[in-house]
Amino acid sequence: MTLQQLYEQTPPQQRALQFGIAGNDALTGAFPQKRVVHAGLQGSLVSPRESQQIWQDLMAQAPTGKEVQTAYIHIPFCKTKCLYCGFFQNGMDQSVEDEYIRCLVQELRQAAKARRLRDSLIHAVFIGGGTPTSLSADNAARLLGAVRDCLPLANDYELTLEGRVHDLEPEKIDTWLAYGVNRISLGVQSFDTKVRRAVGRLDDRDTVLERLAALKAYGQCVVVIDLMYGLPGQTMDVWMEDVRTFAESGIDGADLYQLNVFEGSALSQAIRQGSLPPAATTAQQALMFQAAKTYLDQRAYRRLNICHWSRSQRERSLYNTLARSGAAMFPFGCGAGGHVDGYETMLHRAITPYELFVREGKKPFMALLRQSPFQSFIDEIQYQLEQGCLDIGALAAKEPRLGELNWLYQRWQDQGLVRYNGVLYELTDAGQFWQVNVTQTTLECMQYLLTGQTGAALQGIAAQDSPKSAAMAEAMKKMKASGEGPSMESMKHMAEAMKHMSQEELQAVMQRMKG
């Protein structure tokens, strides 16, 4: 069965989600909703009884040359939980932090003895979380000292420390730089004080800018930030002011991320209860993405991947580039993930079992999987599409069956998602916004062409696009615009929206109305 026949036999709702909707505006309506990239073909789970021996054998082998490799180190602590965050694991406790760092250093020292790591090179290290910058200066020194002593860092290594502006204190900064951190990535999300406070960020606009400027003044590290579009209260004007502020700040680079509000999250509940204004819909976010892209393109910012822009030659975003290319990634720390020599790993997310395994001299696996025999194609497709293109001819030269992907991409060219330049397909602005959908469907079609297996990774719609949220947002907008309290028209809209709400949601709204 060809891809076209597969398309024709797919149920209409799933067909729209996978292949898109012909005739809609490509930027705002190419697909009914955003998807997540789930590579599929994920290989087979290794029995827990075998995992330790397999890992020991793997790490005892000599590396095959000086391949480009990375390491990921996870710090599972945050002082506060931001409303939009899906990565929060543990609050801060100094004694817990001290013991965790002790075990993390022990894990690094154990790995340093293994030939597979010892005789190779690590080109990029990313210390993520959580909030790694929240570590005390002493614990940061202990960890970074172990990184320097235990990992065979290449001469041109990149060492990224992730965190937040609130932690930019002189004592901490001095420690980070003294121990070799040369890239600091900070989750600003928005410079607007009102928007920041609404989602749980601690510092106001002036404080953020002052601390970023002070960090840049050291002149010893690349400074990059995350900005998020679609936050509650973040209009197009507010968003573009965020982008302009970034451009004028002298910061080396920025990731621009779309906010997704998921059903049941703290942010979704806050919006439904009326304590926060609605987040932007996916269609509105598409326009925000395009506006920011146009602004930065006009000012000659370099595009390092779909969501990352660089203003200086110092910023390489090396870890992120290598991570998406399938380069080996050695994992360390509670909740860390990685992949080495044909195996995917996920370490225990809970601190207690993680520390128990480390004390026993074992790799603290939650799971170990053998990768798919088609992993090289998965990596290549994901990497190319992160760069905004796909060379189907090059894929077909390695595996002729993949040439049929041309049918899919010609269809997407008709829809305005890609354009063929005579060699490869380039993502348009619309294709870049919907890149996760394009990637996931491409992987699913690859799976079908190579194995005959069909199926789609379906996930729930983002809450900001749900009918009840949209209806309530429209009703609130009409009532606010009248300036004279609720009109008959706005009351009708509110009543219609409330038909779709649960009893708990109605009670929350009523409580809010009582003040």
Automatic annotation (TrEMBL):
Species of the source: Megasphaera elsdenii
Domain Radical SAM core positions: 63-299
Protein name: Heme anaerobic degradation radical SAM methyltransferase ChuW/HutW
Gene Ontology CC annotations of this record: cytoplasm
GO molecular function: 4 iron, 4 sulfur cluster binding; metal ion binding; methyltransferase activity
InterPro entries: Aldolase_TIM, Coproporphyrinogen-III_oxidase, Elp3/MiaA/NifB-like_rSAM, HutW, rSAM, rSAM_sf
SUPFAM superfamilies, A to Z: Radical SAM enzymes
Keywords: Iron, Iron-sulfur, Metal-binding, Methyltransferase, S-adenosyl-L-methionine, Transferase
GO process terms (BP): methylation; porphyrin-containing compound biosynthetic process
Lineage top rank: taxon: Bacteria
Record has Chaperone as a keyword: no
